[in-house]
Amino acid sequence: MTTTLPAPQADDLQHDFDATISDDRRIEPRDWMPDAYRKTMIRQIAQHAHSEIIGMQPEGNWITRAPSLRRKAVLLAKVQDEAGHGMYLYSAAETLGADRADMTGKLITGRQKYSSIFNYPTLTYADVGVIGWLVDGAAICNQVPLCRASYGPYARAMVRICKEESFHQRQGYELLLTMMRGSDKQRAMVQEATNRFWWPSLMMFGPPDHRSPNTEQSMQWGIKRHTNDELRQRFVDMTVPQAAKLGVTLPDPDLRWNEERGRHDFGEIDWSEFDAVLKGDGPCNTQRVQHRRAAHEDGEWVRDAATAYAAKTAARRAEKKVAS
Ligand code: FAQ
């Protein structure tokens, strides 16, 4: 949406926007904002919404094979929560003028991204626990600072999402604690799932700072409060003691406490793997997008029916108004 305004008015609007950001107040949907800010917010929120929706697939894969009624109920509720997060986020993007059908179209034709992590398969039930522990854990680490993001509707959606993600993280950790108290086979499953998900979880935070084209501007605008590398480091420091308590080994021979830095050092991430996943060449990219596309196509009749019902209700309301 490009708006050309006379110069003095444009300057005033820019000044008000800058003041809102520097005073750490929120930008609201009716406020003027630079086109580039709107575009960045739509990009990030759409990617985030798509991640929540595509993120239902890896764990959804285990709903019918959960090992008990309790685990099944918990997993169903968790996957449903992720759908809810997607819905809040699409609504937040709509307040910026984005169109939900357009965003879905861009997702299923590969023109908008979703998180790299959901392109990895879930091979055993331990993956459900590890996703809760590491993937939701990384998501919380990344999203808690977003509760203070400068765009009001996004920041407010994040508050509720973070509360639910914290619960998800605990359910994953509780599942893993239970498995670690079980048989040798169960313990081996947890270790094997941790080995597969550790590095992709670190990639969730995005490219290293020197290769992150958006960080600097997003930090100036108060969208991001920390860089990708800062949050990744925070996640490593938070997770190491949790792994020790659980009794699993994180698959990184270079991971050790650095007394001087007061943080953990960790090994080099394979960024060529991240780049390949982003290009569509991860283990499950094709399957994830195809599945989403099929669900969208299968749901066409529901959208048509809802649209027809809304039109009929509006017409009836208009008729009543004319009659009264
Ligand atoms: N995967 O310049 P930067 C969840 C893209 S929700 C794919 O650093 P930015 C809940 C990036 O978009 C997980 N693409 O970008 C759950 C950019 O693309 P461009 C999702 C990635 O935006 C749990 C390009 O690379 N969370 O897990 C990734 O400043 C369990 C350059 O990167 C969010 O979306 C990636 N990992 O920082 C659900 C949180 N990283 O410019 C189910 C909100 C980067 O070509 C089960 N988003 N890219 O369009 C953010 O915090 C930021 O957007 C970052 C990236 C940190 C992800």
TrEMBL record:
InterPro entries: Aromatic_CoA_ox/epox, Ferritin-like, Ferritin-like_SF, PaaA, PaaA_PaaC. It comes from the Bacteria. GO terms for biological process: phenylacetate catabolic process. GO terms for molecular function: phenylacetyl-CoA 1,2-epoxidase activity. Keywords: Oxidoreductase. Its EC number is 1.14.13.149. It is an enzyme of class 1 (oxidoreductase). GO terms for cellular component: cytosol. NCBIfam families: PA_CoA_Oxy1 (TIGR02156). This is Ring-1,2-phenylacetyl-CoA epoxidase subunit PaaA.
